[in-house]
Design a protein that fits this description.
Order of helices and strands: HEEEHHEHEHHEHEHEHEEHHHEEHHEEH
CATH superfamily of the largest domain: Type I PLP-dependent aspartate aminotransferase-like (Major domain)
CATH topology of the largest domain: Aspartate Aminotransferase, domain 2
Strand content: 5-15%
Structural class: alpha/beta
Largest sheet: 7 strands, mixed
Radius of gyration: 22 Å
Number of domains: 2
Number of helices: 15
Helix content: 40-55%
Length: about 450
C-alpha cells in the first residue's frame, strides 16, 4: 500500500507541541489511540476534508457530529458572511437569539425556556447547578462511559477522551466533588433502583446521554430510559438528558422525541451552532426562571448567544427542517451500515455495528455492546489497524475506538462505495494478518 504524504502535518504537529499542550486543543485529536501523525486540516467542503499535504478524505467525524449538513454548506456560509459584515459580537441582546430559541423549542416540547452558552460542557454544568438549586439536594447520578463535558463533577468514569486515554478520574477533582457524584452502569435499571434505595432523598438529578455516543455508540434499552423517568418522578429528582450530540441528530426532536421519554432539563450543543461554538440548556419555565436575572442561580458568558453562532444555527436548523431531510439522511446512513456489516461478514471479522440514525458505532467483538464494560472488552487493536488502513485509503474515521462515526447530508453514493471498498480491504487485511500471527504463535511452540 502506497502511504500518503504527511510531511507538512508532521512538521506542523512538531511545531504545535512546542506551544500547545500535546500539540492539540482537545486530546483525541493527537491520534494517541491510533498512532501516526495527526492530520492538520486546511479546508473542508461537503463530505470532504483536505489536509495541509493536499490529501483529501471522506469525513466521518463531521466536527464530532456538529456538521449534519457537511462542511461549508452554501446557505450557512452565506448567512455567516452577511452576519460578519454587521459585526462579530455585541455583548448585548439580538433578535437572532430569540429566533434560534423558537426553532429549538418548536421541536423540543420539554423546553419552554432556554439559555444559550458557548459549549456543551457549560450547558451540562449549568443544568446540574440549576437542578441542585431547584431540588435543594447535592448528589448527582451519572452513568459509566457517558461524557458530559469536563466540569469537575462529571469527570468520574467518563467516556470520550477519558475512555480513549484510560483515565479513570481526572487529576484536580477534589474528593468532596467526587463524593457527590454517584456512578451506575448504563442500560441497567436495577442498579438505578438500588441507588435510589440507598439515597432516597439526596439525589438532585440523574444525567444521562439518552443514546450513549461517547464510548462509541451504545443505544439505550427503552426500559432503561422509561425507568429513569419513573424513578426520578417518584423521588422528586430531576432527569437531565444530555443531547449535546443527539439533539437534532437522533431525530429533529432529539432522542427524547425518538423514544418518547420527556426529561426535565435538556442540554444541547453541536448542531444548534452549525459548526460554531455553542451550547444551551432548557426546560420548563418553573425551573429555568431560577436562572439569573430572574432567579438566584448565577450563570453568565461574554460570548453567550453571539450573533455568529446564532446565525449559523438558524441556517442549519432551517435546512434540516425541510421536508425529506431526515429520510434521505437515514437512507445513506443505512447504506453505510449495511456495507460495513456485509464487508465484515465476508472477511469473517467479529464486528458489532450499532446505529441510530446517522450515528454509527464500530466494535470488534462477538458479544452485543450494551454498556461501558462491554465496550471496553472490544478489540481496540483491530480498530486501530482498520483506522490506519482507512486513513491511507482516504477515509477519515474517528481517531479513537471510543468515539462515534457520523454521517452527514453531504455524503453521497460515491462516498459510500469508496468507504465500503476500503473497509472490505481493511477487513480482509486484518483477517490475513491475524491468521499469520496465529501461525507464527503456533510454530513458536
Amino acid at each position: 500500500m502506497i502511504l500518503l504524504k504527511t510531511e507538512k502535518s508532521r512538521s506542523l504537529y512538531n511545531e504545535a507541541k512546542r506551544v500547545l499542550v500535546g500539540g492539540v486543543n482537545s486530546p483525541v485529536r493527537a491520534f494517541t489511540a491510533v498512532g501516526g501523525t495527526p492530520r492538520f486540516i486546511k479546508r473542508a467542503r461537503g463530505s470532504k476534508i483536505q489536509d495541509e499535504d493536499g490529501n483529501i478524505y471522506i469525513d466521518y467525524v463531521c466536527s464530532w457530529g456538529a456538521l449534519i449538513l457537511g462542511s461549508a454548506h452554501p446557505k450557512v456560509l452565506a448567512a455567516l458572511r452577511a452576519s460578519v459584515s454587521r459585526g462579530t459580537s455585541y455583548g448585548a441582546p439580538t433578535k437572532l437569539e430569540t429566533e434560534l430559541a423558537k426553532l429549538i423549542t418548536d421541536q423540543f416540547p420539554s423546553i419552554q425556556k432556554i439559555r444559550f452558552v458557548n459549549s456543551g460542557t457549560e450547558a451540562t454544568m449549568s443544568a446540574l447547578r440549576l437542578a441542585r438549586a431547584y431540588t435543594k439536594r447535592s448528589k448527582i447520578l451519572k452513568f459509566e462511559g457517558c461524557y458530559h463535558g469536563h466540569s469537575d463533577s462529571m469527570l468520574v468514569k467518563g467516556g470520550s477522551g477519558m475512555a480513549t486515554f484510560g483515565i479513570p478520574d481526572s487529576a484536580g477533582v477534589t474528593k468532596g466533588v467526587a463524593s457527590d457524584t454517584i456512578v451506575a452502569p448504563y442500560n441497567d435499571p436495577e442498579s438505578v433502583k438500588m441507588t435510589f434505595e440507598e439515597h432516597p432523598d439526596e439525589i438532585a438529578a440523574v444525567i444521562v446521554e439518552p443514546i450513549a455516543a461517547n464510548m462509541g455508540l451504545v443505544p439505550p434499552n427503552l426500559a432503561f430510559l422509561s425507568g429513569l423517568r419513573d424513578v426520578t418522578r417518584k423521588h422528586g429528582t430531576l432527569l437531565i438528558f444530555d443531547e449535546v450530540i443527539t439533539g437534532f441528530r437522533a431525530s429533529i426532536g432529539g432522542a427524547q422525541k425518538l423514544y418518547g421519554v420527556t426529561p426535565d432539563l435538556t442540554s444541547l450543543g453541536k448542531i444548534i451552532g452549525g459548526g460554531l461554538p455553542v451550547g444551551a440548556y432548557g426546560g420548563p419555565g418553573e425551573i429555568m426562571d431560577l436562572v439569573a436575572p430572574t432567579g438566584p442561580v448565577y450563570q453568565a458568558g461574554t460570548l453567550s448567544g453571539n450573533p455568529l453562532a446564532m446565525t449559523a444555527g438558524i441556517a442549519t436548523l432551517k435546512e434540516i427542517g425541510r421536508r425529506g431531510f431526515y429520510s434521505k439522511l437515514e437512507l445513506i446512513s443505512a447504506q453505510v451500515e449495511n456495507g460495513l456489516v456485509g464487508a465484515a461478514k465476508d472477511a469473517n471479522v467479529d464486528l458489532q455495528l450499532t446505529r441510530v440514525g446517522s450515528m454509527v458505532g464500530l466494535f470488534f467483538t462477538r458479544e452485543p455492546v450494551t454498556n461501558y464494560k462491554s465496550v471496553k472488552s472490544s478489540d481496540t487493536v483491530a480498530y486501530t489497524m482498520m483506522f490506519n488502513w482507512m486513513l491511507e485509503k482516504g477515509v477519515y474515521l474517528p481517531p479513537s475506538p471510543f468515539e462515534t462515526i457520523f454521517v452527514s447530508a453531504a455524503h453521497n453514493q460515491n462516498d459510500v462505495a469508496r468507504t465500503i471498498k476500503a473497509a472490505k480491504e481493511a477487513f480482509q487485511w486484518l483477517t490475513k494478518r491475524r491468521s499469520a500471527e496465529v501461525k507464527v504463535g503456533a510454530s513458536a511452540h
